[in-house]
Amino acid sequence: MRNFFRTLTGRVVLVTVATAFVAVIVTSLVALPVAVRRANNQARADLQEKSAIAVELLHTPAAREKIVSQLRDDGVNVYLIRRGVADSPGLPARVVQQVAAGAQVDTRGMVGGKSMMIAGRPLKGNDAGVVLTRPPTGAAVQALQGVWLGMLAGLVGGVLAGALQARFIARPIRQAAQAATRLAAGERTVRLAVRPPVEATELAGAFNQLAAALETSEGRERDFLLSVSHELRTPLATIRGYAEALADGVVGADGAPKAGATMLAEAERLDRLIADLLVLSRLEAADLPIDVVEVDLAELVRSAVEAWAPRCVPDGPLLLVEAPSAPIVVHTDPGRIRQVLDGLCENALRIVPPGAPLVLAARAEAGAGVVEVRDGGPGFTDDDLAVAFQRGALNQRYRGIRKVGSGLGLALAARLVDRLGGTIEAGHAAEGGARFTVALPYPARTQR
Q1: Containing H/E element for 135?
Q2: 427, 437 Cβ separation under 8 angstroms
Q3: Residue 123 DSSP label
Q4: Which of 31, 175, 338, 356 reaches 20 to 30 Å from 328, CA-CA?
Q5: C-alpha to C-alpha distance for 240 and 245, rounded to whole angstroms
Q6: In terms of pTM, does the model score above 0.90?
């Protein structure tokens, strides 16, 4: 029973029963005095009416015995008053005096040790009258008996209503729990029917959005893994091919340096890919170390240009620098910002045609220092910009159309910049290609 009341059904039943029980009690407390007062007023009016009839009939000796007997059969006691004295003891003295004095009486008092309703009228003649008494109606006792019956009916009705209401309320929750179990088991197409009430509609809508998001996320994860496996397989196949050629003696002494250089380049490419995967996983786990110091963005951009200049000649893009002579000091991690710039330059070198501009810029804006990488390559569409920083999204779109990387570079750059407290934006460059803008807050706003 204790476990039952820990369930939603048990608690709804308990609340419904308690509500019905309290409603019966409150209704009874309000209605009981009204019912008792009405019953007593009716009884008193009836007693007064009978007293008036008795006065008329008791003048006739022949009808006196009959009317007295009939009244007593109705539970009414009859007292005759002559010369200020009642024919039977028990009446209050004040009642006898008032009737004997010619006054009508409509009151309540103790007669023979019992509470009675009293109605009295004078007869024609001096010091004579009739007094009728009867016990109260007992309406209070009857009403209290009705309260217990109402409580029992409310208890039974509350149990039934609570069970039905709990079933109605708990059904969407049970359906959501069953659907969540199926979703956890790998059934990604499960959805909940959207039905009223509003809360159930909101629950079903939220669950369906979660299921759709999970399905989309897993689809992207599969595509990403396929892309990464392809990127891993390509250098491995090259290294394996040259290794087998060297082992079989196909490549002679003259070709060994070239084979070794190719294998080294492919190994470095493989190492970069694995390093990117490691950094990205650590960023998502929020445990990547960040060393925040004062950094001059203008000097950082100029040093990056010097490092990339040898890779842009003689048949690469035209590397340009736009940086002021005055320092642009921010608090950030110079190694991570340089990693972002190197990744953006690597992407640009892959697709920017020879002679097209590749611009590295630094400038100060209101509240932030900005570094920017622009190129004169094929650029992005507006749809590309919406998914540019999602892992593998652009790789999946342009694989087989133009040279693409692993799909990790832009996702890694976005997470690094976010970890440093800045923002990164992709757009269209004035040079005709892509533009990546990284804004880093000044020291007062930097997240340490």
Answers
A1: none
A2: yes
A3: P
A4: 356
A5: 9
A6: no
In DSSP terms, which residues pair with 117 in a beta bridge? 108, 134
CB atoms within 10 A of CB 199: 11
pLDDT on residue 361: 94
**Token pair for residue 361?**
């810029």
**Phi and psi torsions of 332, nearest 5°:** -160, -175
Q: Are 231 and 405 in contact (CB under 8 A)?
A: yes
Q: Please, which residues bridge with residue 372 across strands?
A: 361, 437
Q: What is the pLDDT of residues 126-168, one digit of tens each?
A: 667 777 777 776 666 666 666 666 667 766 776 777 677 777 7
Q: Is the pLDDT of residue 373 over 90?
A: yes
CB 1 within 8 A of CB 13: no
Q: Which two tokens stand for residue 159?
A: 């149990």
In the three-class reduction of DSSP (H, G, I as helix; E, B as strand; rest coil), residue 89 is classed as coil
**Structural tokens at position 306:** 């010097």
Per-residue model confidence as pLDDT tens digits over 386-399? 888 877 667 666 66
**Terminal Cα distance for the chain, rounded:** 55
The string of DSSP letters for 344-385 reads: HHHHHHHHPPTT-EEEEEEEEETTEEEEEEEE-SS---HHHH
CA distance 202 to 213: 16
